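Pasting as-is:
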Amino acid sequence: MSVSDPGFSRGTASAFEPVIEAIKEGKPQAVFLLLAVLIAALAFAVSQWGLVALSLTALALVPVIMVVLVLITVGK
């Protein structure tokens, strides 16, 4: 069986499908599922690219942390 075979179907399942279903159903554990998937993705990235993945993750989270600090300061 090859990719060009008409009977071959790629799996459409992704790591985010249970998270999306939990969000649609309004389950409170959706946040924890999303956090677990993101931590697994970060672990995979670190195993592939090492310190560069950690550095880019930290750089990408700077605006998020800044907004959180402003919201804490304002009291919301």
